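Researcher: We are triaging several targets before committing to wet-lab work. For this one, the compound of interest is zinc ion. I'm pasting the protein sequence and the ligand SMILES. What I need is the predicted three-dimensional arrangement of the protein with the ligand bound, expressed as structure tokens, so it can go straight into our comparison scripts without reformatting.
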Amino acid sequence: MITAIGPVRRALAPTVAGRSETCHVALTFDDGPDPASTPAFLDLLAVHDVRATFFVLGRLLSVNPDLASRIHGDGHELGVHGWDHMTPLVRSRRRMREEMRRTADLIELASGAAPRWYRPPFGVMSRTATLAAADVGLRPVLWTAWGRDWSSRATGPSVINAVRRQPARGGTILLHDADTASAPGSWRSTLEALPELLAGWRSEDLTVGPLRGHGGLFSLWAGP
Ligand SMILES: [Zn+2]
């Protein structure tokens, strides 16, 4: 479902792609929170003492407020992925702004903290999406590597191989903690891949954490 965005992503500024100049790897999960899958990710990340950024959908957040509170309570960061998973190409700026704000308000209600980041569904960083995010005070962040974990053909090893095609150092990793816009149950491959990915990054002396841990130039980015 995510196609043809590579050229768009490469054309964007490195900071929008989630590239920093540090030994930090930003670990991000999209499309939750889903009670069927997200708790398994939270349990695994707790075992490995790793924090991440969860780009959540307002529609799911509205029916799973306790799960959002747990994500925050476990030390993770929450970002806005939109209200539902509709592509920004079919939304007006006003509609997008309202949906981002509703989602951001739910995040603040659950966590006590206003979100900082926005990642558009399908990575479609349209001008409308960029402007709407700025209206709400959200900074767009895409990714530098992904696990292609949305596919019905994805397996633990295939997710590991896909992520490792790009250097992790200073990068932002896109994975999914829910199958909202993916093949049913595909999150299980993501979960299977995680321990080996985390071990690999540790062996490279990389620090894994949420986007807020991306220092250097990334933290100086002033917005669109
Ligand atoms: Zn998504």
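Researcher: Any quick observations?
Model: Residues 26 and 134 are 22 Å apart (CA to CA).
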